[in-house]
Amino acid sequence: MATSTVENYIKQIYALQYEQGDGGLVGMGDLAVALGVTPGTATSMVKSLARDKHVEYTPRVGVALSESGKSLALHVLRRHRLVELFLVKILGMEWHEIHEEAETLEHAISERVLAKIDALLGRPKVDPHGDSIPSPSGVIAERNLVALDQCDVGRAATISRIEDQADDFLQYLESNRLTPGHEIEVVESDRHAGILSLRFVDGSQCSLGFPVARKIQVELHD
Ligand SMILES: [Zn+2]
User: Fold this and answer.
1) What is the total count of domains within the chain?
2) How far, in Å, from the CA of 210 to the mean position of ligand 1?
3) Residue 93 alpha carbon to ligand 1 centre in Å
């Protein structure tokens, strides 16, 4: 089994490759910054990952996951996201406190326990923040989501994923019911003022600024 340091590097390279970019090479400087280590530390770790065939490393250019590295990254993400859902649904924890716990547990949990958690939760497809949970074989579902600030007035949608998962932001969203699963309709969108208003199915309304709306992804209804 890979060590937690190896898993964290692999996970970070995956995030930089696939979540922020085009799946291309990740620069060593960007990787070092994201992991909070010196470029020298990142480079020696990446060289060791390359020897283990988890990544392809081109000196002075960057690093990309190999097929086995990508599969490992997806397995770590599967553990992380299932653990987060378990912490919320079964242990009743608040959704803004679960990420840090999952960061530790994702490296410690066995496949056997993970399979039990998956079954207990009914083989869920998304975690509490709306991120897709990779399948046991490492397949991640593509979804058609748009940022809330791109929604037209009169359009109905379901809040599906939160882009910014910082604690205080999640707490703010929770106190305004702006969490995944809620159905909404945009009732006003003022581009000049940068304010968007939406209505929940029970008729209550909420206004938010465009910078907030941009970090909330929704699935549009037909
Ligand atoms: Zn998390």
Assistant:
1) 2
2) 24
3) 13
Q: State how far Cα 73 lies from the chain centre.
A: 13
Question: Residue 106 C-alpha to ligand 1 middle, in angstroms?
Answer: 10
Beta strands in 7-92 (DSSP E): 55-58, 62-65
User: Is it the case that residue 114 has pLDDT exceeding 80?
Assistant: yes
Q: Is residue 106 part of a domain?
A: no
Which of 65, 85, 104 is the last residue before a domain boundary? 65
Q: How far is the CA of 103 from the centre of ligand 1 (A)?
A: 7
Query: Nearest-CA neighbor of 215 among 158, 170, 162?
Result: 162
CATH number at 43 reads 1.10.10.10
Q: What is the pTM assigned to this prediction?
A: 0.87
Distance 36 CA to ligand 1 centre (A): 18
Q: Is residue 115, in this structure, part of any structural domain at all? A: no
DSSP-derived letter for residue 57 is E
Å from CA of 83 to ligand 1 middle: 9
pLDDT in tens, 146-194: 999 999 999 999 999 999 888 899 999 999 999 999 999 999 999 899 9
Name the band, by pLDDT with cuts 50, 70 and 90, for residue 1. low
**Separation of 132 CA from ligand 1 center, angstroms?**
11
For residue 192, the domain's CATH number is 2.30.30.90
* Residue range 54-71, pLDDT digits in tens: 999 999 889 999 999 999
Q: Residue 169 falls within a domain, yes or no?
A: yes
Tokens of 32: 């070092």
| pLDDT value, residue 141 | 85
What are the structure tokens assigned to 159, written together? 């809040």
In a domain, 52, yes or no: yes
Contacting residues for 7 by C-beta, under 8 A, at least 6 apart: 72, 76, 106, 107
